[in-house]
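fyi for ur records
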Amino acid sequence: MLSLNEQKQLFYFCVGLRKKIFVHSSPCQTWPTRNESHRGPAGEPVVRFRDAFLLYKMHRSYQPVLPCANKYLQLKWDKEKYEGHKKRIQAAKPSVDTSSPAIYNHLHLKLGKLKLEEDRHSDIERENRVLLEKISRIMRTKGQIDNKNDYKAKSLNAEKRKQEQRRVSQENRVILDRITKAQPHYQVQRWHEDWQRAEKYMASIARYPRGQCKSHSLKEEQFKEKTPKRDRKRNKQLKEESMNSKMKEREHAHHGKGKNN
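which gave:
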């Protein structure tokens, strides 16, 4: 059984690292037993080449999970079991159907629409052929139609429409005569007389004579028209000054009476 250091050195040797390991490969030398120490002349550990090669290959050998009597048979059985497992996985059916939906040809082709398109194209081709034949016949001959516009427009109900127009105009004329000749229901003259009577009553019961405000406003307007704007301002200032002086005189007179009393 190799020690931990010997196993490390063996690992370095296997991977190709340069370590100071003395490998004993002489075929005539007797190999020490398990209990004897593997040491070289200088005291370094000695590892046989055969043991190193076997240990190097050991990590690539099959290592079963559970203990077994024969590794080779266990490897064969495990391989068969694994292959069967892969086949079952590939043949397993999903619980959810993820396949594409079914394709219905009548939904994609739409034969009815294609038939309608074909009929329409055939009608267009037939009309074009007929038109081409007519044009070619006209080009070969002089044609059968005269293009003179001597036709006069005629109407089957022109007389009826004229009669209806005359009837409507006659009715409108009658309505207009009735409106113009109608007598008014309300008498405007009576309204005017009532208003004059009401004005007399208001003038008789009024405290002040009616019309004074209007006459005063008329006089002011006439005065404004005659005098210029500058004179009007001056007259207004004079009036205000006279009013203020009168107010002051009244106040002085009132105070004098109070002192005498």
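Residues 17-37 have pLDDT under 50 and may be disordered. thats all i got for now
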